[in-house]
From TrEMBL:
Pfam families for this protein: MerR_1
The HTH merR-type domain, residue ranges: 24-92
The protein's name in its UniProt record: MerR family transcriptional regulator
Keywords from the UniProt entry: DNA-binding
Signal peptide segment: none
Keyword Calcium: no
């Protein structure tokens, strides 16, 4: 198993996809599995974030690799990474191994932003917990 395949399996695990997932899914099935709308999936395809092959009838066929990429994109979006930055990152991936330093820098910068937001949220939670106890409520452990 290659590193990419291992990462794909890990990313698929983040979505808690069913073990009996077919090799190919329709757009409706992919939407159900990923929790995204068909509109969002088509948008991701239209702007080039994913490539979705078509069957003989012209219908989209979502494969496991595509679902892994969608899982990756979904996690980045959940961490407030803009679609334009995700697109730039994926463009760098497509350009090859020589762009790894740029990808690393992009991800390190994004991680720093996530860490700042987590610190801000921890501070907001502490203030909220304090006020709850002031009013006689119970703080969470």
């Amino acid at each position: 198993m290659t590193v990419t395949q291992v990462l794909d399996v890990q990313l698929l695990g983040l979505l808690e996809l069913p073990a009996d997932l077919p090799e190919q899914l329709s757009i409706a099935e992919a939407a159900e599995v990923t929790g995204l709308t068909a509109h969002t999936l088509r948008y991701y395809e239209r702007i080039g974030l994913v490539r979705v092959p078509r069957d003989e009838s012209g219908y989209r066929c979502y494969q496991r690799e595509t679902l892994a990429r969608i899982a990756f994109i979904t996690r980045l979006r959940a961490s407030d990474m803009p679609v334009s930055t995700i697109s730039h990152y994926l463009d760098l991936v497509e350009q090859g191994k020589h762009t790894e330093p740029q990808r690393l820098a992009l991800m390190e910068e994004h991680r720093a932003g996530i860490q700042r937001r987590l610190r801000d949220l921890q501070a907001a939670l502490a203030v909220t917990e304090y006020k709850i106890t002031v009013y006689g409520g119970t703080a969470t452990p």
